[in-house]
Amino acid sequence: MRTLLTQLARFGAVGLVGLVVDVTLFNLLRVTVLAPDVIAEGPILAKVISTSVAIIVNWVGSRLWSFRLEHRRPPLREAVEFALVSVGGMGISVACLVTSHYVLGFTSLLADNIATNMIGLGLSSIFRFALYRSWVFHPQRDTVAAGNSARRA
C-alpha cells in the first residue's frame, strides 16, 4: 500500500509539472496564433500541441522518478507504450473540449479551460495512471510474458 501511495504522490507531482506546461502553452496558443477568430479549430490545435509537449515532460518524469524502479523494458518501447496511453488521455481531454466548445457552444477562454484542463484532465488522469501502472511500467509484465513464452517453447 505504501508503494502505491508513493507512486501516486510522485505521479501527481510529475503531473503537476506537466499540467503547468500544458495549461500555459494551451492558453498562450489559444489567445495568440491559434485563437478561434484566427483559426476556427484553434482551441483543438492548441490543446493537441500543448498536451503533446506535456506528454514528453511527463514521460521523462515518470520514467526517471514516479516509476523509476519499475521500468525494465528498453526506453524506446516504453516511450511508445507511454505515448499510446497518453494519446488516449489526450483524446479524453480533447473530447471534453469539443463537446463544450463546439456542441454546447461554450466558447470563452474560461469555458475551454474548464472543459479541457479541469474535467478532461481529471478523467484522463485516472485513465493514464491506471494504464501506466498496470501496463507501461508494470514490473512483472515482462516476467509473466517471458514465462509464458518459455512454456510454449
Strand-helix topology:
Layout: H1 2-31, H2 42-66, H3 75-103, H4 109-136, H5 141-152
Helix pairs in contact: 1-2, 1-4, 2-3, 3-4
Overall radius of gyration: 18 Å
Which structural class fits the helix and strand makeup? mainly alpha
The amount of beta strand, in percent, is under 5%
Number of domains: 1
Outline the structure in words.
The chain has one domain (2-141). The model has no long low-confidence stretch (mean pLDDT 87). The relative contact order is 0.12. The radius of gyration is 18 Å and the shape is elongated. With 153 residues, it is mostly helical. The protein has 5 helices and no strands.
Question: Which descriptors would you attach to this protein?
Answer:
81% helix; mainly alpha; 153 residues; 0% strand
Explain briefly what this protein structure is.
The protein is mainly α and 153 residues long. It has one domain.
